[in-house]
């Protein structure tokens, strides 16, 4: 795969992306370039173990059983992206990756020391100094954990930048229509004071929201948001 939304966005992002599904069914070895094959598979393995711990802690933070999200198979579909941001001679004219929110349960990002990732805080872009892990969290927490808006600047430095996020998504059991059961805010988190902010959805509906659309913030979450009347 090249740049994920090259034919859908107004301007091409200065990036190439390799996409691999590394969840329950590991990818065919021949589909992974030999030069990075063992490194990517090793990262996927370690990253997955790390995500399991992280998701348990997220459950604790939400006040639900540590195994709750794993039992719901919320992290079973794992996508590894290998982003390559080459030197851009005019970085002010485009982006490396345009502003967006990840629609994953959790993303674990491995990045080199080049920098360029920014997150939006109080309406200002703040640079994330390269460290080994960065996470974004999604909607089944009824907004208790929010998926942060972020972007990557076009890479003005002489050396290319590399980042390898692992994206963890739900992989529900399929029913006879080939779709999952319903996902939505955890019932444990809802009350009269904290009503659902999102409607329920199946995984088919979930994936349909991002198909054929240019990358942008909250593209999936907005589709399921319950808009207050009045
Ligand atoms: O390259 C990065 O630092 C971020 C990548 C990213 O945001 C994504 O793949 O969703
Ligand atoms: Fe992202």
Automatic annotation (TrEMBL):
Residues 74-170 form the Fe2OG dioxygenase domain. One of its GO terms (molecular function) is metal ion binding. Gene3D superfamilies: B-lactam Antibiotic, Isopenicillin N Synthase, Chain (2.60.120.330). The keyword Iron applies. The keyword Metal-binding applies. Pfam families: 2OG-FeII_Oxy. It comes from the Eukaryota. Keywords: Iron, Metal-binding, Oxidoreductase. Coiled coil: none annotated. PANTHER family: OS06G0255100 PROTEIN (PTHR10209:SF751), OXIDOREDUCTASE, 2OG-FE II OXYGENASE FAMILY PROTEIN (PTHR10209). Belongs to the iron/ascorbate-dependent oxidoreductase family. This is Fe2OG dioxygenase domain-containing protein. It comes from Papaver nudicaule.
């Amino acid at each position: 795969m090249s740049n994920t939304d090259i034919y859908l966005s107004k301007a091409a992002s200065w990036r190439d992306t390799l996409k691999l599904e590394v969840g329950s069914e590991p990818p065919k070895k021949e589909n992974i370039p030999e030069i990075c094959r063992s490194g990517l598979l090793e990262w996927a393995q370690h990253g997955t173990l790390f995500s399991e711990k992280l998701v348990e802690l997220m459950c604790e933070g939400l006040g639900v059983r540590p195994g709750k999200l794993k039992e719901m198979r919320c992290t079973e579909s794992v996508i590894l992206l290998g982003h390559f941001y080459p030197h851009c001679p005019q970085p002010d004219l485009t982006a490396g990756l345009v502003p967006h929110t990840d629609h994953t349960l959790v993303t674990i990002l491995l990045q080199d020391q080049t920098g360029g990732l920014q997150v939006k805080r109080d309406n200002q872009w703040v640079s994330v100094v390269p460290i080994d892990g960065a996470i974004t969290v999604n909607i089944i927490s009824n907004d208790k954990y929010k998926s942060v808006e972020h972007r990557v600047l076009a890479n003005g430095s002489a050396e290319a930048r590399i980042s390898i996020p692992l994206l963890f998504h739900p992989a529900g059991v399929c029913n006879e229509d080939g779709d999952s059961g319903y996902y939505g805010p955890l019932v444990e988190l809802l009350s009269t004071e904290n009503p659902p902010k999102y409607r329920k959805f199946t995984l088919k509906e979930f994936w349909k929201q991002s198909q054929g659309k240019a990358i942008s913030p909250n593209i999936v979450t907005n589709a399921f948001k319950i808009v207050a009347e009045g």
